[in-house]
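Researcher: I'd like a candidate sequence for this fold, 216 residues long. If you have to choose between options at a position, lean toward the conservative one.
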């Protein structure tokens, strides 16, 4: 299972194109060497949807604005602390990506990812809500309508939840379609803790077992 949506595949589940990422290269090689089925499971049209609702690029623009306020010493002490914690947690989590795969497939990394996403979509939102500049600064969407940074950033957090729940729903669909088969789910490790929390309770009901990579 590959972390893209169905638009990347033909009707018979062949890649429409390939690209130079480790994940894509490894998946294509695996498909060719072992004749394995590969299926998409991400939110369909995720990037187009984010642009449509205005969560992109207001999400990155909002964080850049927070950083600008921080650099200019325009945040209060509590807001500074929140942003500093966010930066530190993000750096710590990103550092695992340069290590072996066992370093980002474990409960420790999951717990850090969980905290990091909480800070991004909940704690940073406190800074956004506390400063009027975010509700008075606007971005023009592709449809010509405008959206405030505050509203766009809030929608980004809502979409993060929606996307992970959709991914889990699609994974459950394929566990039923491929009963008794081994399914490898490839995804960024920021998602791992969220998907595990959604899929873990479904194991008994749907008759599957979640295993970590080092268990094989």
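Model: Candidate sequence:
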């Amino acid at each position: 299972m590959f972390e893209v949506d169905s638009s990347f595949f033909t009707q018979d589940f062949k890649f429409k194109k390939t690209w130079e990422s480790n994940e894509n290269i490894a998946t294509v090689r695996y498909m060719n060497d072992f004749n394995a089925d590969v299926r998409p499971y991400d939110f369909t049209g995720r990037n187009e949807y984010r642009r449509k609702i205005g969560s992109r690029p207001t999400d990155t623009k909002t964080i850049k604005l927070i950083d600008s306020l921080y650099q200019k010493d325009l945040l209060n002490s509590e807001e500074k602390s929140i942003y500093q914690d966010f930066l530190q947690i993000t750096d710590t989590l990103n550092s695992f990506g340069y290590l072996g795969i066992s370093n980002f497939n474990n409960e420790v990394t999951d717990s850090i990812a969980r905290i990091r996403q909480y800070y991004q979509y909940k704690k940073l939102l406190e800074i956004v809500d506390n400063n009027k500049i975010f509700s008075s600064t606007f971005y023009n969407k592709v449809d010509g309508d405008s959206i405030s940074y505050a509203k766009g950033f809030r929608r980004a957090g809502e979409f993060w939840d929606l996307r992970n729940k959709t991914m889990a729903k699609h994974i459950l669909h394929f566990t039923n379609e491929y009963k008794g088969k081994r399914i490898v789910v490839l995804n960024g490790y920021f998602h791992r803790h969220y998907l595990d929390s959604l899929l873990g309770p479904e194991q008994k009901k749907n008759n599957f077992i979640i295993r970590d990579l080092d268990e094989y």
